[in-house]
Write a structure and sequence with these properties.
Number of strands: 0
Helix content: 55-70%
Low-confidence stretches: 20-24, 27-33, 78-92
Shape: globular
Mean pLDDT: 73
Order of helices and strands: HHHHHHHHHHHHH
Distance between the termini: 41 Å
Number of helices: 13
Strand content: under 5%
Largest sheet: none
Number of domains: 1
Radius of gyration: 16 Å
Amino acid sequence: MSLFSTLAKVAVGVAIAKGASHVSRNGMPKLGSGGIGGMLESLGGTSRANADARAPHSTGLSGLLAQAGPMLGGLLGSQAAQSTDADAGLNPAFNPAILGQNNATPSRDQELAAALLLRAMVQATMADGTLDDAERERLMEHLEDASQAERAYVTSLFEQEPDVGALAADVPHGMEEQVYLVSLMAIDLDSQAEAQYLHGLAQALGLAQPVVNDIHKQAGVPPLYA
C-alpha cells in the first residue's frame, strides 16, 4: 500500500467513525472520478485562493519533505521517483490509485500530497473534540491493508493538537482547496466548534466565502456562509 491508498481508506473510515448521522446526511464518500477523487483532481493545481491574504506558507511540496519528521521521512525513503512542484496536489494518477486500480509507484511529491491531506483530515475529525477511542479504533480497522509504518503514521496524527495555522503554513499554493475539501469530509458540521474550525481554516488558506460555499455545494453539504 502507499499513502495514496491510505488516504482513501481513512476517508471511508472517517465517515464511519463519525457516526450514522454523518453518513445519513452526506452518504459514504465516493472515491471515484465522480466523487472525492474527481473533486480532489479538479480542485488541485489552479487555485482560487488569495495567496496575498495568506500568512507565510510553504512554496512547494519539497519544503514539506525538508521538514518531514523521521516517521514520514522513513515512509518516503523508498520513493525514488521524483516530481516537481509545478502541479501541487494530486494529479490524475490519484483516481485509479485511490480505487486500487493502479500499481504504479507514486512519486515522492504525490506521497507528500497524500500525507498532507491525511493530516488535514485527521485534524478536522478532532475539531469538536468528539472522536473518542472507540471511534478512532473503528477508523483504524479500515487500515488493515496498510503497513505497520503507515498505520503508525496515521496514529501519530491523532496525537497532534489541531492547529489551523500550522497546517495552513504547510499547504503550498495550489492545494488550498484540496485541503479544505478533505477537512470538510471529516466534519459533521453540526456544531459551532466545527463551523468555527472550517471558518478559521478557510481564512488561513485564503479562501473567500463564495469559494468555500462552492466547495460545499460540490461536496453536497450545506454552505458555511449565508
